[in-house]
Amino acid sequence: MNGIFLLVASMLFFVFAYRTYGGFVARKLRLSNQNETPSHRLYDGVDYVPAKPPVLLGHHFASIAGAGPIVGPIIAASFGWVPVYLWIIFGAIFIGGVHDFSSIVASVRNRGRSIGQIIENHLGFSGKKLFLIFSWSTLILVIAVFINIVASTFYRTPSAATSSLFFMVLAILFGFSIYRLHTPLWIATIVGVALLFLGIVLGDLFPLKLSMVAWQWILILYIFVASVTPVWILLQPRDYLNSFLLYGLMLGGLVGIFFAFPEIHLPAFTHFSVPNLGTLFPILFVTVACGAISGFHSLVGSGTTAKQLDKETDAKPIGYGGMLIEGVLAVLALLAVASLSRPEFADYYNSRHFVSAFAEGLGRFISSIPLLNIPFSSARTFTALAVSAFALTSLDTATRLARFAFQEFFEDSRKETPQNTGLAQNRFFATTISVLFGAALTFSGKSDAIWPIFGSANQLLAALALLAISLWLANQRQTFLFTLIPMIFMFAVTLTALMILFYLNFFIKNNFVLAGLAVLLFVLAIVLGSQAYRHLRASDYSATTLSDR
After folding, report:
1. Are 101 and 313 a contacting pair, CB within 8 Å?
2. Which residue from 125, 167, 366, 381 lies 20 to 30 Å from 478 (Cα-Cα)?
């Protein structure tokens, strides 16, 4: 089969779903621009800052994308391309898109607070505390994993390091030009994107060669600064500009595939059980991760995006639309490696160089475009650089979200306006604690073992977010079946995966630290799920809101 057919089919599915199912979800969430969003109501110039839809979409998409929708489908491709392709399509439309969209809206309706606050409103103070512990623990795993990924990329590709440093300086200048000099967005964007690609050239000319450990320490310092700096100075403009790298990458791959005309060389289906990976159920659904659904998205949506949403109707293109765009990226990643020969794929898979496999396949697509006449080596380098830029974006966003979770854990939620008055609520102190724990895991030497539990914890976080949203909708006397069904499925998938990991990957191998963490996450999820079930059973509105009205 040819990859063009699969690509076109997926894009048609996503466009149709955005107009139909996305519209259905929007109606159920009752969006209204008459409601003042937290970015205006609670404006503080640091976290609560209204952003124009294109800027916020760039920030949101860059934050949720990272390396997840690329690495996940490539690893899962060992089951065959058909189950991965189907899960990306249906997962993004009916689960991931709903999860991301509703997370943003639920947060906006709750003063831009996290999913934990929504849980407190319906399950009480203890429920919120348990969820915030779960969220913070998952984010520490994210920090540790992505510090190692980014540091390894910078060590192996010094040009990417130079370009990334240049991007940071450019982002600061972009932020000041927009928010202080009031430069029109279109002018700043044209100049910013031009300088962005100039940074790629500078990276090739002046590669910065440092050791792996040196890059790890530099990244630890960077994420601390990025977490405490006002969002308009660095995080928002950098993500917006970096999104053009990913847009350019995706556009090049989408156009190039029509010239490369790639055949699918991977088998449609291999085996139900794959050595060193696991069984199709549940491992496929926690491995693909961000390409179909990711709990990390709910933390981004309710942690940073909701605090910057200008008006409620922006939530559909940013939340639901952003997830579908990520689905396209996941399909593109799958086709890039599926076009490789079986020996090539096996070499990359066994060496764990998943980003390199993606760069190899997509580089061939981009270099096939006649008008551009880009050498294959340059296309491959650009692809690797773009992926590393978004892994860095996920890293600094995860640190900021960990800071939010830590602060909110100690916050007095009875106050109408969040106030960071105690030491634990101080953004510098909260960031320091979060970064120190992430650094400890980074240097523990267990990065390979962390990744599997990170995947399961991430997807279980999605199930808990859907649980909170279902409770919120039920309390509003609104239909919640469209969030309840995905929630049940994700609970079944992730709890099963955690049990398998606990026994086969951690307990038998005497990795008791991660085994204990797996048990903690499992117990927290069960307790929260049980409390929510009792709450719904005892309520007088569950029967009327389960069905469409």
Report:
1. no
2. 125
